[in-house]
Amino acid sequence: MSKYLGAIFDLDGVLVDTAKYHFQAWKQLATQLGIPFTEKDNERLKGVSRVKSLEILLSLGNKEYSVEEQEQFLEQKNQVYVDYIKTMDKSEILPGMIALIQELKDRKLKIALGSASKNAEMILKNTELYDYFDVIVDGNHVAKAKPDPEVFLLGAEKMQLPAEACIVFEDAKAGIEAAQQAGMLAVGVGSSVNLPNADMVVKDLTEINVAELLEFNKKDGM
């Protein structure tokens, strides 16, 4: 029997393609503030909190604003983002995701969401993914952003599983680091260049062989 009993999925860029909406919302704010902002810059914002993301964006333009102004910027960015995601539907689910979760459930693994997003429930409902999850932990439940492992440890706790029995699927460097700190198996989704510390990396979820994944040994590789 596999030692893995639970799977924790990040949301943005793993289950659904919300990354483009984050980029468009941050880009709109950056343009307003006169800050150059590229897709490469946007990579640095993946997996980190809103507040930290704004700090990074402002540092790109060497800009300083009061706490009140920064809160206003965050609210503005989030409203633009929410307007985008309100239009999402199941067509934006990334390839291989439903088949993977279904196979994991068939093998009796519990399924959790571990995301920094405060809009996770809205996205899951709009894309008809909500009912696939046994546990949802998002930005409304945790105080510390990735790479702190809090979101994943809380997911394991809510599934009533030890950390070492959990597999994490992440597309961000900070998320991989959080999974490693939690003592979980860290599967990177995306480019191995961006995710050098993952235990294994797949281009997308269609590349996952569940039988091999469940026998994966962190020490020996796959």
Automatic annotation (TrEMBL):
Keywords: Isomerase, Magnesium, Metal-binding
EC number: 5.4.2.6
Listed GO MF terms: beta-phosphoglucomutase activity; magnesium ion binding; sugar-phosphatase activity
Catalytic-site annotation from UniProt: D10 (proton donor/acceptor), D12 (proton donor/acceptor)
Site (Important for catalytic activity and assists the phosphoryl transfer reaction to Asp8 by balancing charge and orienting the reacting groups) residue list: S115, K146
Cofactor note: Binds 2 magnesium ions per subunit.
Annotated Mg(2+) binding sites: D10, D12, E170, D171
Alphabetized Pfam families for the sequence: Hydrolase
Binding site for substrate: 10-12, 26, 45-50, 53, 77, 115-119, 146
Species annotation: Enterococcus pseudoavium
Family of the protein in this entry: Belongs to the HAD-like hydrolase superfamily. CbbY/CbbZ/Gph/YieH family.
Protein's recorded name: Beta-phosphoglucomutase
Family matches, as InterPro entries: B-phosphoglucomutase_hydrolase, Beta-PGM, HAD-like_sf, HAD-like_SPP, HAD-SF_hydro_IA, HAD_sf, PGP-like_dom2
Transmembrane segments: none
GO biological process: carbohydrate metabolic process
CC cofactor: Mg(2+)
Major enzyme class: isomerase
Keyword Hydrolase (UniProt): no
